[in-house]
Design a protein that fits this description.
Strand order of the largest sheet of chain B: 6-7-8-3-9-10-12-11
Radius of gyration of chain B: 21 Å
Number of domains of chain A: 2
Oligomer: heterodimer
Largest sheet of chain A: 9 strands, mixed
CATH class of the largest domain in chain B: Alpha Beta
Number of strands of chain B: 12
Helix content of chain B: 25-40%
Strand order of the largest sheet of chain A: 1-12-13-11-10-4-9-8-7
CATH superfamily of the largest domain in chain B: P-loop containing nucleotide triphosphate hydrolases
Structural class of chain B: alpha/beta
Strand content of chain B: 15-25%
Shape of chain B: globular
Shape of chain A: globular
Amino acid sequence: MSTVMRSDSPSIDVKQDAASEPLLSVRDLKLYFPTRDQGATVKAIDGVSFDVFAGETFGIIGESGSGKTTLGRALVSLLKPTAGTIRHAGTDLTTLSAAQLRQERRHYQIVFQDPSAALNPRQTILDSVCEPLEIQGGLSRAEREQRALEALSRVGIAPEYARRYPHMLSGGQKQRVNIARVLTLRPRLIVCDEVVAALDVSIRGDVLNLFAELQRDFGLTYVFITHDLSVVAHVSDRVAVTYLGRFVELGPTQEVSERPMHPYTEALMSAEPIPLPASMRTHKRIVLEGEIPSPIDPPSGCRFRTRCPHVQAMCAQEEPAWRELRPSHWVACHFASAEGPPGSTTAITALSN
Amino acid sequence: MTALPRVGEWRYSPRIPIGQDIGGDVLLDIRGLSVSFLTAGGSIAVTRDVSFSIAPGERLGVVGESGCGKTVTGLSLLGLLPARTSRVTGEILFEGRDLNRMTPDQMRAIRGREIGMIFQEPMTALDPVFTIGEQIGEAYRKHFPASRTQARERAIEALAQVGIPLPARRHDEYPHQLSGGMRQRVMIAMALVCEPKLLIADEPTTALDVTVQAQITDLLLDLSQRQGTALMFITHDLGVVAEVCTRMLTMYAGEVVEDAPIEEALLHPRHPYTSGLLRSLPRLAQRKTQLPSIPGRVPLPSAMPAGCRFRERCPHSQAGCEAEQSLRGFDDGRRVRCVRVEELNLPGAAA
């Protein structure tokens, strides 16, 4: 049996344990930006609800233009929601005073894609890593350096690198430094925005392994934002698939990657190039036509309908509801069923509801 | 699937000359190609003794990390490296003619006509002040005596060929009016308008989303198969190589370390670096496990170690690896630069 909800109502999530309050609770979040000309509005995120629980890794996949980076910035209060709420351990950070916000937001950190751009080229590694502690205040210089060196050693950067400048380090080392820098504040949650995209394949594994170790050691919670399916599938417990400012599917990672219900997820998974000879590939590739439309004027009804191989008249008229078709596995598609995307079975459709 | 030779079933055969494709025509034959850059501190060797060949219609994937010399090799084939600050030695035999000895004029007649090229970032490769049709037409008129009208027709035809909807209208649009995927299609149309025999594609899908990447790789594969265009596909993405190419050339630190048919390269790599690259890819199947990686980084051209250049990162290095390694040909047509090749049984993509 499936639960049907209106797409703008809050989703009730996994681990409905009354005792465990989500670390991050996002409800009907909207992030709009005015364009410079013509007074149009870019709806980067347009009604997204989800919870992230302490200790889990929540993956967010999407192509460029899906709004995933905007979402990540909003989660650490770098952007103010246009509408909707984000609660961090029950607190809405937008209601806090500037001083309170500074105390509170240190628990929620972000690591960016380009490890070089995130470091000041004129500061030594040690100074860069000390800076967050300086802003936080309350520690002497010696204490700050001590803690920074501990963090550097934890991410595998030898102390002799501390006095060097960013250009003297490799991309992988720089990303480790960025991780050390957020660790000094002992955060609860780290938003990882395409953290391995700029690194060579050979060292991606190293950095992903480091994230996993740190999670075990410090009980960290991650929101892992990426366009790389193999990365998100590897690290996440649950994953949300974004398309043009909305979630189209959310569920346990293995479920979503192996038995997707939304036609977009299915196409995305099948488009991932696999390093196996043609004779050994089992899945059929679905090549979508066209590209992601503009978020200024998204298609009516279902936003994916312009590229969907299963599109029908109803898709242009009605927005699909956010339905839990399998336990803890949600999808926004009129014609998806627990069996999978449209076409998987003819027995169950949204219309029967 | 045909049975693959197991370790021990194939033998080193010193008589097979390097760079020769067994029993077939050769379109491009590169012999001992070395590139060095001239800097204030002296000459720095970037690639060394690169040799490989491409048969007509063959699709060769060139893989390796950044800094391994893939792009430099591609640029040197077309004489696109700055003459004042670089030196290219060796032979680049294209249908028997040595491109490395050609005058700039002779080279211009081949570049774009016989050999086309597409780059990673389509926006920087297109001129923002000309319509895309004018740019494709210009490429055509450089090599064929055609009127403006004829060039326009040919450009529209080329746009249609790469799957651009409403090609006659798109012909008069400027690059900024197109999406990233459409721009890359325009680049492909421009590269193919003169029907070259060889297309060099340097990371053509890296800047694109995965669903658009699938469209572009399908297009390249389809065009190559239909028109018999040979492809030299430079990429760091082994998944894309597996889908598009028929052969894989692994480069490391400026040298070719392995050359093998695609299926065998993926399933039974013989060089530890190829194996390491394949194993470090996160896969859907192995959730939350420790990912293998290759420790360390590619040595800088200015500080290249003697002997095997991969030695310091190699889990199989031992005494003997500090000696110079030659790229040895084997009787199954594969080439490997590793002294331990006969004794190692390395895991590939399926392991």
